[in-house]
Amino acid sequence: MKRREFITLLGGAAASLPLAAGAQQPAMPVIGFLSPRSPDESAHLVAAFHRGLAETGAVEGQNLAVEYRWGLGDYDRLPMLAAELVRRPVAVLVSVGGEPSALAAKAATATIPIVAVFVDDPVEGGLVASLSRPGGNVTGISGLNGTLEAKRLGLLHEVLPQSTTLGFLLNPTFPAAARQLRDMREAARAIGVQLRVFDAGTDLEIDTAFETIAQQRIPGLVVAADTLFVTHRDRLVALATRYAVPAMYSLHEFGDLGGLMSYGIDLQDLYRNVGVYAGRILKGAKPADLPVMQPTKFGLMLNLKTARTLGLTIPPGVLAIADEVIE
């Protein structure tokens, strides 16, 4: 029997009971979870989300249900998936993975509370009125990943101090791309290196970009913070290995696959905070009154095995500030 049919039957039976037996229990609230990633590579993040929910007393399967929708690395699927969740309907719509997901959620509803993850400035992007008082139905957590590109470039340059040119792999269709590029160009000027930008948004474009990087002997590459690149991380690390390109990434997940280095936020802590906000809204908090959270945990990961393969010696000053070192 389908769940909806079961609930209908149960409701009819309860209506026939004497009032002294008590009224039908209300259905559990439903959270909609929208992600541009895939479920198989997001289990650790979903677990962190559940930990945050549990901090507010919300437990999936006990006092709430969660409907998951996955973009599978295709941003174009997100508006359709967001609309599905709104029609469900859901009590709270969680959108993770940055602006493509947040924009799809906001376009789908102006009334259902949304807890979003932002890569770019959500005020500049028109998603909230201000960080302290978001207003409307959207709040969330600022990943700041899009604004950390300059720090990543500086760290890569410390590892490659003789380099006068460095590359930047960017998805031009990502909503935060313009800001990422602006920050990177300013950072490149500040440290006196020429920045070569390589646009890529598909498997073929990623392959072509690395072929060009190898042909032009670009000594090092920063891969922009973008969920699209995270879902393609196996391919990116494999290409960097094939062409012996020292690369800096946004998340430590790349290091687990053999990526040279990464600098960014603690993604599991971010997802935990998303769960906390979703749970608070289920208990009556209004998105308009919940300030956009700012991350407090950042980490530098170094893969010394990859460094040795590339013939690189990590400077002591960089090694000293690393939060994670893969031997």
In short:
This protein is α/β, with parallel strands linked by helices and 327 residues long. The chain has helices at residues 3-15, 43-55, 78-87, 99-108, 149-159, 177-191, 203-215, 227-231, 233-242, 253-256, 267-282, 304-310, 316-320; strands at 30-35, 65-70, 92-95, 114-118, 138-142, 165-170, 194-199, 221-223, 247-249, 261-265, 298-303, 324-326.
Report on the architecture of this protein.
The chain has 327 residues and is of the alpha/beta class. The chain has 2 domains: 27-143 and 267-289, Response regulator (Rossmann fold), CATH 3.40.50; 146-265 and 298-326, Rossmann fold (3-Layer(aba) Sandwich), CATH 3.40.50.2300. It is built from 13 helices and 12 strands. Strands 7-6-8-9-10-11-12 form a 7-stranded mixed sheet, with helices on both faces. Strand 6, helix 6 and strand 7 form a beta-alpha-beta unit. Helix 2 (43-55) packs across helix 11 and helix 7 (203-215) packs parallel to helix 9.
The CATH superfamily of the largest domain is identified as Response regulator
End-to-end CA span: 53 Å
User: What does the average pLDDT come to?
Assistant: 90
Apparent shape: elongated
Just name the CATH architecture of the largest domain. Answer: 3-Layer(aba) Sandwich
CATH topology call of the largest domain: Rossmann fold
**Overall strand count:** 12
Low-confidence stretches: 1-25
